[in-house]
Design a protein that fits this description.
With about 260 residues, this protein is of the alpha+beta class. It contains 9 helices and 4 strands. It has helices at about 1-10, 10-35, 45-55, 60-90, 105-110, 110-135, 185-195, 195-225, 235-260, and strands at about 140-145, 150-155, 165-170, 180-185.
Length: about 260
């Protein structure tokens, strides 16, 4: 155990820890972006609200969430320690070596980019995660056609102590059966938040910082872990640029833009 601690406390150990936690966060971003695309469904927010219930009540997901929070803290702490150590020694990036095609600006400003991302994350968690878990988020009841799954209506419900999300079907034997879905309305919280200019601006700035941070960080992580073999270097580079530098940031940025201008 002592040897592991000494390794993680070394310069190489901090780089490895940064790489592993960074790659885990990259995986999370793909899953999170995919789930948040439910915001664009034309169903009065039903799919997104059901997704929110799943993400906060399904035990394996909750365990992964706690691991995620710990990973973010480790990544931030490791980054700060590494940056301070590098500054004290000589200006180098946290990758093992300089890579062809990597962004020199991003590599030399990872600390600045990381700080912007941290501010974005704190704001994001406060506006959505904290409000959903501990705030006064309204409960709503959806009327859903059992026949075709279309949403017929949505009404606000008076909240009650110990209320839990649930579903039930009403079938009177005469009209078509109706499914009622009762959930917290995080969709409306998102919709309202993205009417604020400063929040939209912060999200766009955060996504720009994430794009630059990940383009360099994704490739550098493989380099640090010794996994960037010449045979797959091009694949890693393209994944870093297209998936984490373009697609993921655009997917997240499109959400505040959509709600601010069109919803």
């Amino acid at each position: 155990m002592g040897s592991v601690t000494r390794f993680l406390d070394s310069s190489i150990g901090r780089k490895v820890l940064m790489s592993l936690t960074g790659l885990f966060l990259c995986t999370f971003l793909i899953v999170h972006a995919s789930g948040n695309l439910q915001l664009f469904k034309n169903d009065m927010g039903l799919a997104f609200n059901q997704y929110s219930v799943f993400m906060t009540t399904f035990t394996p997901i909750k365990i992964v969430s706690y691991l995620l929070y710990a990973t973010i803290l480790l990544h931030v702490i490791s980054g700060v320690r590494l940056a301070l150590a590098n500054k004290a020694a000589r200006p180098v990036s946290y990758g093992a070596s300089k890579m062809p095609g990597s962004s020199s600006w991003a590599s030399s400003n990872m600390m600045v980019l990381g700080f912007i991302i941290l501010i974005f994350l704190v704001t994001h968690m406060a506006n959505f995660w904290y409000k959903y878990k501990f705030g006064d988020v309204e409960w709503v009841k959806y009327e859903v056609s059992v026949m075709d799954g279309s949403v017929i209506g949505k009404t606000t419900m008076p909240s009650a102590p110990h209320m839990q999300p649930h579903e039930y079907v009403v079938n009177d034997g005469v009209s078509a059966p109706i499914k009622y879905v009762i959930v917290k309305d995080l969709y409306s919280v998102v919709q309202l938040a993205f009417q604020e200019v400063w929040i939209v601006a912060l999200y766009l700035l955060g996504m720009l910082a994430i794009a630059y941070h990940l383009v360099h960080g994704f490739q550098s992580s493989f380099q640090t872990l010794g996994l960037r073999h010449p045979a797959i270097a091009g694949i890693i580079r393209n994944l870093g640029i297209w998936v984490f530098g373009i697609i993921i940031p655009i997917a997240f940025a499109s959400m505040p833009v959509y709600f601010f201008f069109f919803a």
